[in-house]
Write a structure and sequence with these properties.
There is one protein chain. This protein is an alpha/beta fold. The chain contains eleven helices and eight strands. It has helices spanning 22-28, 31-37, 61-84, 99-112, 144-148, 154-157, 181-189, 197-203, 205-217, 250-257, 281-295; strands at residues 3-8, 42-48, 88-93, 118-123, 171-176, 193-196, 222-228, 266-272. Strands 2-1-3-8-7-4-5-6 form an eight-stranded parallel β-sheet, with helices on both faces. Helix 10 runs parallel beside helix 11 (281-295).
Length: 298
């Protein structure tokens, strides 16, 4: 199994758009070389950029949606062609609105290979299930889960097809500790399984993730995992887009993630919201390396 890293260098979904610099910093920190030194078969790191960079242009959220849509269309194609080539896509963000591209691309491939439905485990401090109507900030990185379930703006909900990419019963959220009413009501109405931070703290992330894998595998042939670095307590992962008090310890998360590689149905991985502008970026970049080392096979 070869791993192909895809840098998704877009921060247009966030208020602070510095996550767009995450993939370049990981490249400059030699993440590919370090993974190869550890004998992981990584073919390359290809970085995709939006039409405009946030460092060069000021774009408010409503207009940013068209930049996000265009970017996600290209990202979805990149994920799809990576799977077509027999490689395992590892997407490195970027803010979490890039997930719409990642999982649309996976959906396209698994649809053709007759492996739908697809499951998804979303490991995050936030629900990311707002629609433009419920979002207090209007930030699209708070909306990808709603979009993947077919709700909200067409730029997120209908990227490549009219059908939702995910069915609610094949999705679960892990580590949630910050959310608003509107998004919580949507997920409650859809009966999405949520492992809140309190449950994770009580039971341990390792046990919860094992259960989450079983849950999203009940009626699916394949599943993916999306990790937002802000699920980790900010003392250990300061370089994130939207830090929240509390969270899991990085060591516990790494142990839990190491179980993924034993599941042959695990096909796509995504790691997002790395903001190198926050202090101690080396600490968080090193954490990105350790996370990838846990989910990869030799």
């Amino acid at each position: 199994m070869n791993y192909r890293l895809i840098g998704a260098a877009s921060g247009w979904g966030a208020k602070l758009r510095e996550c767009e610099q995450g993939p370049e910093v990981l490249r400059d920190e030699q993440i590919v070389e370090k993974l190869r030194e550890r004998e992981f078969p990584v073919s390359e790191l290809k970085i995709l950029y939006p039409e405009k960079k946030a460092t060069e242009a000021t774009v408010p959220f409503p207009e940013a949606l068209s930049l996000i849509r265009d970017f996600n269309l290209r990202l979805s194609k990149e994920v799809e062609t990576t799977l077509e080539s027999g490689q395992f896509p590892v997407v490195l963000g970027g803010d979490h609105s890039i997930a719409v591209g990642t999982w649309n691309g996976a959906y396209q491939f698994f649809n053709k290979s007759n492996e739908l439905p697809m499951g998804l485990i979303w490991i995050d401090a936030h629900m990311d299930a707002h629609t433009p109507k419920t979002s207090p900030s209007g930030a699209p990185h708070g909306m990808p889960i709603a979009g993947l379930l077919g709700h909200g703006d067409d730029a997120l909900a209908k990227l490549k097809q009219n059908d939702p990419v995910l069915s609610p019963e094949n999705l679960c959220l892990v580590g949630i500790r910050s959310f608003e009413d509107g998004e919580a009501q949507l997920l409650k109405r859809l009966n999405v399984r949520i492992y809140f931070d309190k449950e994770v703290q009580e039971r341990g992330i390792e046990e919860v993730l094992k259960e989450a894998i079983s849950y999203v595998s009940r009626q699916t042939k394949v599943f993916g995992v999306s990790v937002d670095l802000d699920v980790i307590c900010p003392e250990e992962a300061p370089g994130v887009g939207s830090p929240e008090k509390g969270g899991v310890h990085s060591h516990d998360l790494l142990t839990a993630l190491s179980h993924l590689k034993h599941h042959k149905e695990f096909k796509v991985f995504e790691l997002v919201e790395y903001n190198p502008k926050k202090n101690h970026h080396k600490q968080t970049a090193k954490l990105c390396l350790e996370i990838l080392s846990q989910v990869m096979h030799h």
